[in-house]
Structure formats: structure tokens, C-alpha cells
Amino acid sequence: MTPRLPHQSRGLQLTLILCALVFIGFFLLLPLVAVFAEALAKGFGTYTAALVDPDALSAIELTLLVAAISVPLNVVFGLCAAWAIAKFDFRGKSVLCTLIDLPFSVSPVVAGLVYVLLFGAQGWFGPWLIDHGVRIIFAVPGIILATILVTFPFVARELIPLMEEQGRTDEEAALALGASGFRTFLRVTLPNIKWGLLYGVLLCNARAMGEFGAVSVVSGHLRGLTNTMPLHVEILYNEYNFAAAFAVASLLALLALVTLVLKTSLEWKFGYSHGSTR
Description:
278 residues; mainly alpha; 13 helices
């Protein structure tokens, strides 16, 4: 049971809550309202026209494609990394944990630049790729690689503390009874982490669809070809096409709100919170 605050602390409690609400309202809710207000400022016809524009449709399609590829790959990596770190002892475990956290400490622009240095025309592998007709930078493969790099910690970092808290007892019992490693994972490990896994997938997907910095470096900003939704918003805004820019931005905001609703529903319905084993 959470201890009650002393009577003399209630004033401080209310003050802190009020400060938090004012901060959220000013820096989160007000900009969100402004996005939708600007998107609909010239009428619903202008709003829908901006969303069905061929370049906008191409950006939406590419954003969904990149998320559809990068998120499942990060799920596989996150499961493997979390299972190895939480269930086994091996040399280099701390190094692996540090590498998983690396995208959190490195600027996304730097992450994108890494791929340019590797696969660009003047990069390490660039001349070989050009000779063999393979395009990575300024093409969809580069965007997918950059998105994977900046999003791969989310699933792993959600699962590692959860699986460490659960321990190894259940898996060891299943193995002792003759279950294979893969069957143990499917029947024992996965049911215990399914809500944490879903939580990590939601966060990973939200970041994949909204990523700007790393994708901007490797995309080349080719309109209708390599522009994701965030990049398309930037181009429209720089062209002073504010209504269309805010229309596409509102779609991104809606996707973020859907993610938030799913995340909140997950926490409420299944009693799951960050790091919880329930």
C-alpha cells in the first residue's frame, strides 16, 4: 500500500501536479491542437487533397513499408538478445548491453552518416556496389538500414529487465523434463513476456514511423521515391505549403495517438507497466 503523505505535504503535492499539467499542456497538448488546427485551416477539402497527393501517398507507403520491415527484424533481434543476456552467462555480456544502448547515446544524424561512409559513392563499399548495380544510399535499402539502427534497442531494452526479473527457474525445469530449447521458448518464455514484447513493439513502431535524422541523411530527399512522411512534411513546409505540411503532420500525430492509446490500453487491461512481470 502506498503510504499517505502528511497533511502539510498536500500543498506541495498539488503544486507539483499542477506544474506537471501545465508543462504537458504547454509543450504537448497545445502543439498537438495547433497541428490539427493548421491542417484544417483551409477546409476539409484542402486537407484531404494534401493526403491523396501522389507524393504524399508515396511517402505514406514508404513509411509503412520501412516500419513493416524494420520492426519485425528488431523483434527477432530483441528476443534473441534479451534471451541470451537474461538466461545465459557468457563473456562479453556487458559489451553487448552497451552496444544495444548505443543508438540512445548517438545522434541519429551520425547513425545515418555511418551508412553513407560505408555504402556511399566514396565509402568503403561504395565503388563495389556501384560496379554491381546495387543502390543502398539514396534508396529504400538505406532508409531501412538507418531505421533499424535507431530503433533496435526498444524491444531488447523492454525485455531484458523483464526476463532477468523472471529468472531461469521455469526454463530450467522445462529443459529438465525433456523439452527442446525452441519448445521451451514457445511454451514457457514467450507467454511470460508477451505483453512486454507487445509494449516494445509499439514503441519501436512509433519511432520507426517518426524517424527523421538518420533517414534524412541516407534518403537523398527524392520526391516520390525516398521521402518518408517526416521528410515530406519538411519539404512541404520549406515550400511554404503550410496546409499540406500540417495535413501530413496531423496524420503522423494520429498514428502517434493510436500508439499511445494502444500502449495505455495494454497497461490498463493487463496490468502491465514498464519492467513489470505481471
